[in-house]
Design brief:
The protein has 397 residues and is mostly helical. It has 17 helices and no strands. The longest helix is centred in the N-terminal third of the chain and has 35 residues, at 36-70.
């Protein structure tokens, strides 16, 4: 991960127009180089890199929170109406020609994301069933995307191009002001994530087991959705809905450390989210240069196949026993052991019966054993074959 992140960061800072050699990066940043290369590096490329790291970390952490709280690996912001609601909150004032300050856009995105997530939970019965939440969220996301299409029809040509690039998720022309707008939200979200991580581990057990351990499943699911909204909305306000980062990053964290829990997966999911967005921004800048493509198009193009492959690989690993035996394997082991015990007892009883037929002394000892087991029956004192066989059968039963 460190090697990939370092390579992607160097590509982001060095390549482009103009090209900045790696040995000049430190001098251009620290000495305040006033040349064209220094200005491009410090005012455009460096804030773009920092924004990619922060946005990816927020989306990766939000994806893990949603997947663990709903116990579904497909629970991503794009499938729950959160990203679509945030995009609708930012795009609506642009189409309706409303003058909105840049500082208010995160609030609009927050309101739209809360609207989308709230509609999902209300339609699914306040999150009583994780599967119902996911299916309802897909329907709500489709409805919000339809509203976005209506807005795009109403927009003029210039606004249409801006909305189109925004809806695909782009890091182009972002400055330090955009990066500074994310820090207040991170100060709220990071402590909430620290408190939420142990609860996510309990939520993996199921609603009934979580209730037995003192965790109210519905309230915990609402709190998880609120934390995800706080993480996703500011990023969507600045960059647009960068698609499927919240789907790929948690699966990468689980694939590299399958035996861990939500507490350890959370920081790794955030780190992998930062790596995914940073890597996707490199071809977004350089693949069709001098034309830039949205980074969200590359995350969706590469993230969905990679995430599906990781899901299939993780399923095979769990089937093979990687990360400890599952519940089904434990149940099968117990049942097989039970059958083995029954067969051993049956063989022992039949051998006792056959031995008692052959010799009277073994029959006498078996009669004594029957006397110890059953006080209401008198001892045989002899080799009575039929009672011994019957007693052996009853012991076997």
């Amino acid at each position: 991960m460190i090697a990939v992140l370092t390579a992607a960061s160097l590509c982001t800072l060095c390549f482009g127009t103009p090209v900045v050699p790696p040995h000049r990066l430190a001098a251009a940043v620290l000495d305040g180089d006033t040349t064209l290369a220094g200005v491009v590096l410090t005012e455009l490329r460096l804030p773009r890199l920092v924004l990619a790291l922060v946005a990816g970390a927020c989306l990766g952490a939000a994806g893990l929170v949603l997947q663990e709280s709903l116990r579904n690996p497909l629970a991503v912001p794009e499938m729950l109406g959160v990203s679509s609601g945030a995009a609708l909150g930012v795009a609506a004032p642009l189409v309706l020609t409303l003058s909105v300050p840049a500082a208010v856009q995160p609030l609009l995105a927050l309101g739209g994301a809360a609207l989308g997530g709230g509609l999902t939970l209300l339609a699914a019965g306040l999150g009583r069933s994780p599967s119902a939440v996911l299916l309802t969220g897909a329907a709500v996301a489709a409805a919000l995307q339809a509203a976005l299409l209506v807005l795009m029809v109403m927009a003029d040509q210039l606004d249409l191009q801006l909305i189109y690039r925004y809806l695909l998720g782009s890091l182009s022309a972002r400055t330090w002001d955009d990066v500074a707008g994310l820090w207040p939200w991170l100060l709220v979200a990071v402590p909430a994530l620290v408190l939420c991580a142990p609860v996510l581990s309990v939520m993996r057990l199921g609603d009934e087991d979580a209730e037995a351990l003192g965790v109210r499943a519905q309230r915990a699911r609402l709190a998880a959705l609120a934390i995800a909204v706080v993480l996703i909305a500011p990023v969507t306000a600045v960059c647009g809905p960068v698609a499927w980062v919240g789907f790929l990053a948690p699966h990468l964290a689980r694939w590299f450390n399958p035996t861990a829990g939500a507490v350890r997966w959370l920081p790794w999911s955030a780190a992998w989210g930062a790596v995914v967005v940073t890597v996707a921004d490199v071809p977004a800048r350089l693949a069709l240069a001098p034309v830039e493509t949205p980074a969200g198009a590359w995350t969706a193009l590469l993230g969905v196949p990679a995430g599906v492959a990781l899901m299939r690989s993780g399923r095979r690993d769990r089937t093979a026993g990687r990360g400890g035996p599952g519940v089904a394997a434990v149940v099968r082991t117990l049942l097989n052991g039970r059958r083995t015990v029954r067969s051993d007892v049956g063989v022992g009883s039949s051998s006792i019966g056959s031995s008692s037929i052959g010799t009277s002394s073994i029959g006498t000892s078996s009669g004594g054993a029957r006397k110890k087991g059953r006080q209401d029956e008198p001892p045989d004192g002899g080799a009575c074959h039929t009672p011994v066989e019957k007693t052996g059968t009853e012991d076997a039963r």
